[in-house]
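Re: pyridoxal-5'-phosphate structure - here you go.
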Amino acid sequence: MRTSIRTQRFPESIIREMTRVALDVGAINLSQGYPDFPAPQAIKDAAARAIQDDWNQYSVTWGLKPLRDAIADHYRRRYEMDVNPDTDVVVCCGATECMIAAMLGVVNPGDEVVCFEPYYESYIPNCFITQSTPRFVSLRPAADGAWTFDPDELRRVFNAKTKAIIVNSPHNPTGKVFTRDELQLIAELCIAHDVIAITDEIYEFITYDGAQHTPIATLPGMAERTITISGMSKTFSVTGWRLGYAVAPADLMVGVRKAHDFMSVCAATPLQVAGIAMLTLGDDYYRQLREDYAQRREFALEMLREVGFKPVTPEGAYYIMADFSAISDEDDITFGLRMAQEIGVACVPGSPFFSRPERSRNIVRFAFCKKRETLEQARERLQRLKRR
Ligand code: PLP
């Protein structure tokens, strides 16, 4: 084998593979989570202007100073978090790079990292890279439809080797928004076991039915032990710009910044300039974003229910986990591939989100961050499931 032992353990990303399948067979792509509608004109103009104005060289490794100021200000205004732009912020190539930089910054080989399952697939390779062991806590849909976890299962997983817990809320793939009480329990365990919370809050502004996003860093005793991660991809519909940021107390941020420096040097400078424009958009922008996604969610839930899926209603983010056992007794991978190839709608089989395949056998995930026309076309094609 000429490839490293470490990368041999990486899974191929099934999410990105499904996008390739969708392109090959001309399926409507409800697999990977990127919008097919335009980004706001004002920020596209800001990026184009930045290139013309020659913001075309490396920026300071941890991000342009005015962008770090805007990020610190954003956390202060929205969450009353006290963030020093000079020492507590790093701008990376997406939340994805922030997450691996955070892990490299604080996790040692042999440490354990707690992770809720199902999980966003990049957390697991990040454990391989840092030679740490993921310890899973199950999220399950409760009787009222919301996903939840067993507090005792969470308590049991914390031990002397636990270094960090990944808290992704709003959560991909389930759409769960962790409640204040749930975060409080996580916080108590982190404090009791001297554990660092690494968060993924990339969907913080996409919530439904009044669900409230709470950064765990705002809970008592957590600011000093949390690396808070978010970014522009989802809030501003610019997933291809690769712009994300992390904030943490200076003593944690030191390691995160070093890891980032040697991975990517800096995020794209002209896009950082446009990032400043993004963070100064007013509340109306966020209200509209939420309203538009609420409409897409309703449409997508209805579209899935009418052909026999059993979707779990998400409280946040833009995905729906749906049980397909009333439609087919195939496994998730076979069904997912057939959905793309025969029905013409690509979704993601449940497997990449679970460590135990038996939990994902009847589950697929749909992304609904799409134009109305795209969702309407998908609805029409899904009728083919009824005719089989
Ligand atoms: N975190 C979660 C939970 C995601 O769902 C995604 C993208 O789908 C990302 C991170 C990637 O974010 P970014 O584009 O900022 O790297």
